[in-house]
């Protein structure tokens, strides 16, 4: 009798645990964390011509985390990121003739959503969008005198990419565009184009 009860208990536990295990083993599902790095192009100008404003390229890097829900035909996720960059951009004749304004990109905060379509168990393509808040450090020069300041500017980010899964690890290749609008009371429009690689792990 005890053996029969034990066997029945094993069958019940196995029956209940199997769907749960299958659910937990879904690809592109659950919490994740990763490190990201890539190519960053920072634009600053008034948009009135190629000679107005400037752009610089450099290196962007950061850490990201989030949670994905695999709903079968698509994946819905939330994510956040904090990053930094080595680039800056400049413009002349912003307030007065002969002046120069240099903007350097500082820390960047991002929060948004991601919508993906699994191609198979190891490949997913996705699009993303959300809010980004960029810290800009400013140096303003007029008549050989320089003043420094900083400001945080909110904007939006749109992106698309592909994610490759291998066990609990994953890798991503992603393009994204961020628009922060004008800086303070100037006509200096700020935006960024980035191509980023991310390596991370799911839990």
Automatic annotation (TrEMBL):
Question: InterPro entries attached here?
Answer: Beta-barrel_OMP (IPR027385), OMP-like (IPR051692), OMP/PagP_B-barrel (IPR011250)
Residue span of the signal peptide, if any? 1-22
Q: Which UniProt keywords are listed?
A: Membrane, Signal
Its main subcellular localisation, reduced to a broad class, is membrane
Q: Which SUPFAM superfamilies match?
A: OMPA-like
Q: Where is it localised?
A: Membrane
Could you list the residue ranges that cross the membrane? none
Q: Does the keyword Signal apply?
A: yes
Q: Which stretches make up the Outer membrane protein beta-barrel domain?
A: 9-203
Tell me if Disulfide bond is a UniProt keyword of this record: no
* Pfam families recorded: OMP_b-brl
Tell me where on the tree of life, at the top rank, the source sits.
Bacteria
Family designation: Belongs to the Omp25/RopB family.
| PANTHER family, per database record | BLL7405 PROTEIN
Q: What is this protein called?
A: Outer membrane beta-barrel protein
Q: Which organism is it from?
A: Qipengyuania mesophila
């Amino acid at each position: 009798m005890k053996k029969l009860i034990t066997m029945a208990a094993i069958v019940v536990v196995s029956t209940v645990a199997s769907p749960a295990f299958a659910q937990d083993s879904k690809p592109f599902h659950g919490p994740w964390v990763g490190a990201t790095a890539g190519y960053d192009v920072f634009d600053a100008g008034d948009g009135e011509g190629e000679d107005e404003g400037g752009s610089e390229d450099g290196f962007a890097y950061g850490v990201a985390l989030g949670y994905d829900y695999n709903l079968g035909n698509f994946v819905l996720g939330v994510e956040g990121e904090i990053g930094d960059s080595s680039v800056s951009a400049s413009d002349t004749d912003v307030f007065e003739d002969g002046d120069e304004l240099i903007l350097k990109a500082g820390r960047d905060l991002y929060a948004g959503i991601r919508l993906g379509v699994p191609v198979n168990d190891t490949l997913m393509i996705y699009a993303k969008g959300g809010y980004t808040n960029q810290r800009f450090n400013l140096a303003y020069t007029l008549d050989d005198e320089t003043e420094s300041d900083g400001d945080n500017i909110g904007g939006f980010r749109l992106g698309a990419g592909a994610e490759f899964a291998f066990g609990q690890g994953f890798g991503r290749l992603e393009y994204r565009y961020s628009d922060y609008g004008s800086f303070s009371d100037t006509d200096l429009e700020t935006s960024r184009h980035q191509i980023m690689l991310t390596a991370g792990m799911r839990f």
